Amino acid sequence: MFYKYHSSDGAEFAGVEKVDIETLGGDQNLFKESCEDWLEREDGVIYSRDFAKDPIWISGADQEWETCAVSCKFGFDPSKKPDAAFGSPQQSGVASVLRSMESASYYSENNLAQARRRGYDIVMTTSLSSDVPVGYFSWAEYDIMAPVMPKTEKAHAAAFISNCGARNFRLEALVGLEKENIKIDSYGSCHRNRDGNVDKVETLKRYKFSLAFENSNEEDYVTEKFLQSLVAGTIPVVVGAPNIEDFAPSPSSYLHIKELEDVPSIAKKMKYLAENPNAYNQSLRWKYEGPSDSFKALVDMAAVHSSCRLCIHLATVIQEKEEKSSDFKKRPCKCTRGSETVYHTYVRERGRFKMDSIFLRSGNLTLGALEAAVLKKFKSLKHVPIWKQERPKSIRGGDELKVYRVYPVGLTQRQALYTFKFKGDADLRSHIENNPCPKFEVIFV
């Protein structure tokens, strides 16, 4: 039953064979070490691939992501089989990647279901349901917390629309607003009545409203039209993504024309806000008090470049495949002493690769205990959130850690941010008991 083994530094320890542990039902009463120490050791199976020595390799323009959480290289090497390549599926064992920021309404191949049917293994689009989202939003790209400037223009709104053949009703909405006596200065090719040779954001700053009219109404397709409006400190009037509320810094920060029939009511709201400074300023309170946690959690995703997130995704998939091998299936993942069982789980911050151990006890296997264990672990590591240097200083916060979401590794960002939630403590218990050594990701805000 008992045996001796040596650690990497030569120290000698007494142990027990796994088969005997199973016979004992995981009972560790014979051990002097804690369940946590025993699990850390017994579950510590080494992966066959060391990414530090054998980085993720993606066929593409030469680039090395030295700051990525997993070693990652892009380049062309005929002698080396890459882990992934951009473009349609060509080589067995090489993950095919579709990457595009264009609307699926114009480029149907960007539709997730169609991309899967065409054999793509990894999809990178503006859809938060794609494997590695590549949205327009970013703290680095947009000075979202820039101060609000005085609204000096007489017109209610500014418009910059140059594609006059959009596949939605945006031009009809513009005409409809004008019929409702909303004065619009148009700087784009469509309905132009002002010289378009201007700086867009600087121009928008002078208007109370901006027509953030996309060229298609597609879930998650939110472009610079909306984000530049936020930078400018104007209220975007949106024709576009049906879920634009997911991308808004506060519920009152935008107006949404969901269908043409909404135009009269939106025009009425615009007039009211334009004539009532207190009400108008309420819509911009987020500029002074900070955006919602949900908005920060969304934009923080872009603190890690999509190319790095692609490498993390690939490395995670590679390890998950190996975890189906017999060596990993032999891991105990739990330790029982008397009436209590300690469960071994793993967690990492979104945008990181390395997993850290946390332990949960059967007597307190709750959502609250999971969050507390996550906070305790990362505080002990003096962890600095990955977005800390990316966010504007005014909304970075102090040294405290605040959990926004904890979710199983492998979910899409749409699930992680908006649709997934453990139904309760029983649901969490079921997940942990049915998924030995489960892995979680945490989003801090």
From TrEMBL:
<dbReference type="InterPro" id="IPR055270">
    <property type="entry name" value="Glyco_tran_10_C"/>
</dbReference>
<dbReference type="InterPro" id="IPR038577">
    <property type="entry name" value="GT10-like_C_sf"/>
</dbReference>
<comment type="similarity">
    <text>Belongs to the glycosyltransferase 10 family.</text>
</comment>
<dbReference type="GO" id="GO:0032580">
    <property type="term" value="C:Golgi cisterna membrane"/>
</dbReference>
<keyword id="KW-0472">Membrane</keyword>
<keyword id="KW-0808">Transferase</keyword>
<keyword id="KW-0325">Glycoprotein</keyword>
<protein>
    <recommendedName>
        <fullName>Fucosyltransferase</fullName>
        <ecNumber>2.4.1.-</ecNumber>
    </recommendedName>
</protein>
<dbReference type="Pfam" id="PF00852">
    <property type="entry name" value="Glyco_transf_10"/>
</dbReference>
<dbReference type="GO" id="GO:0008417">
    <property type="term" value="F:fucosyltransferase activity"/>
</dbReference>
<keyword id="KW-0328">Glycosyltransferase</keyword>
<comment type="pathway">
    <text>Protein modification; protein glycosylation.</text>
</comment>
<dbReference type="InterPro" id="IPR001503">
    <property type="entry name" value="Glyco_trans_10"/>
</dbReference>
<dbReference type="GO" id="GO:0071555">
    <property type="term" value="P:cell wall organization"/>
</dbReference>
<feature type="domain" description="Fucosyltransferase C-terminal">
    <location>
        <begin position="154"/>
        <end position="319"/>
    </location>
</feature>
<keyword id="KW-0961">Cell wall biogenesis/degradation</keyword>
<keyword id="KW-0333">Golgi apparatus</keyword>
<keyword id="KW-0812">Transmembrane</keyword>
<keyword id="KW-1133">Transmembrane helix</keyword>
<keyword id="KW-0735">Signal-anchor</keyword>
